[in-house]
Amino acid sequence: MKKLFVDTNIVIDLLSRRELFFEEAAIVFSLADKKKIKLSVSSLTIANTSYALLKQMDSNKAKAILRKLRLIVEILPLDDKIIDLALNDETFNDFEDSLQYFTALENGQDIILTRNLKDFKSSKLPTMTAKQFIEA
Q1: Residue 16 pLDDT > 90, yes or no?
Q2: What CATH number has the domain bearing residue 27?
Q3: Number of separate domains in the chain
Protein backbone atom coordinates (compact mmCIF):
# COMPACT_ATOMS: atom_id res chain seq x y z
CA MET A 1 0.00 0.00 0.00
CA LYS A 2 1.38 3.39 -0.99
CA LYS A 3 2.30 5.72 1.87
CA LEU A 4 1.53 9.32 1.00
CA PHE A 5 2.70 12.24 3.07
CA VAL A 6 0.15 15.05 2.81
CA ASP A 7 1.33 18.65 3.03
CA THR A 8 -0.67 21.08 5.16
CA ASN A 9 -2.15 22.93 2.20
CA ILE A 10 -4.04 19.83 1.01
CA VAL A 11 -5.40 19.13 4.49
CA ILE A 12 -6.65 22.70 4.73
CA ASP A 13 -8.09 22.43 1.19
CA LEU A 14 -10.20 19.53 2.41
CA LEU A 15 -11.24 20.79 5.83
CA SER A 16 -11.87 24.38 4.75
CA ARG A 17 -13.56 23.21 1.54
CA ARG A 18 -11.37 25.48 -0.60
CA GLU A 19 -13.36 25.81 -3.79
CA LEU A 20 -10.72 25.12 -6.43
CA PHE A 21 -9.00 22.29 -4.58
CA PHE A 22 -11.60 20.60 -2.35
CA GLU A 23 -12.71 17.86 -4.77
CA GLU A 24 -9.20 16.59 -5.42
CA ALA A 25 -8.38 16.54 -1.71
CA ALA A 26 -11.67 14.79 -0.95
CA ILE A 27 -10.89 12.03 -3.48
CA VAL A 28 -7.46 11.41 -1.92
CA PHE A 29 -8.87 11.25 1.61
CA SER A 30 -11.69 8.99 0.40
CA LEU A 31 -9.11 6.55 -0.98
CA ALA A 32 -7.46 6.50 2.44
CA ASP A 33 -10.80 5.99 4.16
CA LYS A 34 -11.34 2.96 1.88
CA LYS A 35 -7.86 1.67 2.88
CA LYS A 36 -6.50 1.90 -0.69
CA ILE A 37 -3.68 4.22 0.35
CA LYS A 38 -2.16 5.25 3.67
CA LEU A 39 -2.02 8.98 4.44
CA SER A 40 0.33 10.61 6.91
CA VAL A 41 0.82 14.17 8.09
CA SER A 42 3.32 15.76 10.41
CA SER A 43 2.36 16.90 13.88
CA LEU A 44 3.13 20.39 12.58
CA THR A 45 0.26 20.01 10.09
CA ILE A 46 -2.18 19.34 12.91
CA ALA A 47 -1.10 22.53 14.69
CA ASN A 48 -1.18 24.63 11.51
CA THR A 49 -4.56 23.23 10.48
CA SER A 50 -6.00 23.98 13.90
CA TYR A 51 -4.80 27.56 13.58
CA ALA A 52 -6.47 27.89 10.16
CA LEU A 53 -9.73 26.32 11.34
CA LEU A 54 -9.93 28.57 14.40
CA LYS A 55 -10.11 31.55 12.05
CA GLN A 56 -13.33 30.06 10.63
CA MET A 57 -15.03 28.42 13.61
CA ASP A 58 -15.02 27.94 17.37
CA SER A 59 -12.58 25.70 19.21
CA ASN A 60 -15.03 22.84 19.86
CA LYS A 61 -15.97 22.53 16.19
CA ALA A 62 -12.31 22.72 15.10
CA LYS A 63 -11.35 19.95 17.54
CA ALA A 64 -14.24 17.78 16.34
CA ILE A 65 -13.00 18.14 12.75
CA LEU A 66 -9.43 17.32 13.79
CA ARG A 67 -10.65 14.22 15.66
CA LYS A 68 -12.29 13.00 12.43
CA LEU A 69 -9.12 13.73 10.48
CA ARG A 70 -7.17 11.73 13.05
CA LEU A 71 -9.19 8.64 12.13
CA ILE A 72 -7.95 8.78 8.53
CA VAL A 73 -4.31 9.89 8.83
CA GLU A 74 -1.28 8.78 10.76
CA ILE A 75 0.38 11.67 12.56
CA LEU A 76 4.15 11.51 12.25
CA PRO A 77 6.37 12.95 14.97
CA LEU A 78 8.46 16.06 14.62
CA ASP A 79 11.53 15.20 16.68
CA ASP A 80 15.04 16.51 17.37
CA LYS A 81 16.55 14.71 14.38
CA ILE A 82 14.02 16.18 11.93
CA ILE A 83 14.46 19.67 13.35
CA ASP A 84 18.25 19.36 13.14
CA LEU A 85 18.05 18.11 9.54
CA ALA A 86 15.81 21.05 8.60
CA LEU A 87 17.96 23.59 10.42
CA ASN A 88 21.09 22.38 8.64
CA ASP A 89 19.54 21.92 5.20
CA GLU A 90 20.42 24.45 2.53
CA THR A 91 18.25 23.15 -0.30
CA PHE A 92 14.87 24.33 1.01
CA ASN A 93 14.18 28.06 1.20
CA ASP A 94 11.25 27.66 3.59
CA PHE A 95 11.93 26.15 7.02
CA GLU A 96 8.41 24.76 7.35
CA ASP A 97 8.69 22.97 3.99
CA SER A 98 12.02 21.55 5.14
CA LEU A 99 10.39 20.23 8.32
CA GLN A 100 7.64 18.62 6.27
CA TYR A 101 10.11 17.10 3.83
CA PHE A 102 12.36 15.57 6.47
CA THR A 103 9.35 14.25 8.37
CA ALA A 104 8.27 12.41 5.22
CA LEU A 105 11.78 11.22 4.39
CA GLU A 106 12.64 9.99 7.88
CA ASN A 107 9.34 8.13 8.17
CA GLY A 108 9.66 6.18 4.93
CA GLN A 109 6.93 7.85 2.94
CA ASP A 110 6.62 6.97 -0.76
CA ILE A 111 5.22 10.24 -2.14
CA ILE A 112 4.69 13.81 -0.96
CA LEU A 113 1.35 15.35 -1.94
CA THR A 114 1.35 19.13 -2.03
CA ARG A 115 -0.25 21.93 -3.96
CA ASN A 116 3.06 23.81 -4.09
CA LEU A 117 5.39 21.62 -6.13
CA LYS A 118 7.98 24.38 -6.45
CA ASP A 119 8.46 24.29 -2.67
CA PHE A 120 9.66 20.68 -2.92
CA LYS A 121 11.76 20.86 -6.09
CA SER A 122 14.78 19.62 -4.07
CA SER A 123 12.91 16.57 -2.81
CA LYS A 124 14.44 13.13 -3.22
CA LEU A 125 10.91 11.72 -2.86
CA PRO A 126 8.42 11.87 -5.72
CA THR A 127 6.25 14.95 -5.21
CA MET A 128 2.93 15.61 -6.87
CA THR A 129 -0.35 17.42 -6.52
CA ALA A 130 -3.50 15.62 -5.46
CA LYS A 131 -4.77 15.97 -9.02
CA GLN A 132 -1.60 14.42 -10.46
CA PHE A 133 -1.83 11.52 -8.01
CA ILE A 134 -5.47 10.85 -8.89
CA GLU A 135 -4.72 10.96 -12.61
CA ALA A 136 -1.77 8.58 -12.20
Answers
A1: no
A2: 3.40.50.1010
A3: 1
Long-range contacts of 27-33 (CB under 8 A, 24+ apart): 27/130, 27/134, 28/4, 28/113, 28/130, 28/133, 28/134, 29/72, 32/4, 32/72, 32/73, 33/72
What tens digit of pLDDT does each residue of 85-102 get? 999 999 998 999 999 999
3-class secondary-structure state, position 37: coil
Start-to-end CA distance of the chain, whole Å, equals 15
- 108-118: pLDDT as tens digits: 999 999 999 99
Domain span at 45: 3-135
